[in-house]
Design goal:
Length: about 300
């Protein structure tokens, strides 16, 4: 049991360290694809402006939320990194400290950029869903914009941010949560004067919030995309044009056969149910370790 615990903790430490590299390197390889996605989203946004749809000003709320997330993450990294550097200045070289701080900041920016991008696409789907029952514009126009945004969303989760999100945003954060709780909070090296206690709480809180935010935005985006079926049903009840009714029926049938799931790289499902399952596994492991330690005492 002791060997298994050591192996798991070492794996958690290595995963949290490797995740920072993957977040930066993977983004470099897919930078051109990200530029294409941003150009497509900008085109859709311009179409919404030309259609003079309601609710466009609500994008400001999303921007402020994303800005707050970015500011809080950066402040926590700067404060905790400063405390950590002061504690480790006699044990590590300056170059090693700078590399670790830079990797943490790059991972933070990568995570916040992903959250901002997903929030932006979720907002676009929300605007389209709100406009379909209003009959203010041609249904085919909103249908085309909807499929463009969905294709961008698939591309972001499948290739551009698929692996970094799985390894860096989820795997590394969960690994650091387990490693911090076990190594620094439950069983610290010094129970009386642990110099890492404050910084451990800060890192634990930040990593936990990041995981919750990621799963919440994934769950909300999935529900908003699937709400398109309800919007089409509402439009079909008030529509009298036979041609548009046929368009609604074809669109509705396609939506039924293409139920959207917020997945990363086509294999990691991100919603609240999966978050509860992941939390149960992590908590169960920690409880087993606590009972094992207590039995040894």
């Amino acid at each position: 049991m002791t060997e298994l615990t050591s192996l798991i903790l070492i794996s958690c430490y290595e995963l949290s360290f490797i995740g920072r590299f993957i977040c930066k390197i993977w983004r470099i390889f897919f930078d051109d694809s990200l530029s294409t996605v941003l150009t497509t989203l900008e085109t859709v946004h311009e179409k919404l402006i030309r259609l003079n749809v309601d609710g466009l000003k609500k994008i400001k709320n999303i921007n402020w939320i994303s800005i707050v997330i970015i500011i809080v993450n950066i402040m926590v990294i700067i404060i905790s990194s400063t405390i950590w550097i002061i504690m480790q200045k006699h044990m590590l070289d300056i170059i090693d400290m700078v590399i670790i701080v830079v990797l943490n900041i790059c991972q933070c920016f990568c995570f916040c950029e992903y959250i901002l991008l997903i929030s932006y696409m979720k907002w676009m789907i929300y605007i389209i869903n709100e406009q379909i029952p209003e009959r203010k514009s041609c249904l085919s126009t909103f249908r085309d914009m909807y499929f463009e945004v969905i294709e961008c969303l698939h591309q972001v989760n499948r290739s551009i941010y698929g692996v970094p999100a799985i390894v860096g945003f989820i795997g590394a954060n969960v690994a650091e949560i387990i490693f911090t709780i076990y190594g620094y909070l439950l069983f610290p090296r010094d129970y009386i004067n642990d110099p890492y206690l404050v910084i451990s709480f800060i890192w634990l809180l930040m990593r936990t919030v990041n995981v919750i935010v990621l799963y919440k935005i994934g769950d909300a985006t999935e529900k908003e995309v699937n709400r398109m079926s309800l919007a089409l049903h509402q439009r079909s009840l008030i529509e009298k044009n036979p041609r548009i009714k046929r368009q609604i029926k074809c669109f509705f049938l396609r939506r039924l056969h293409e139920h959207f799931h917020f997945e990363l790289y086509g294999m990691c499902h991100v919603n609240i149910r999966q978050l509860f399952s992941l939390s149960n596994i992590a908590i169960g492991y920690l409880v087993i370790q606590v009972l094992f330690k207590l039995n040894k005492l």
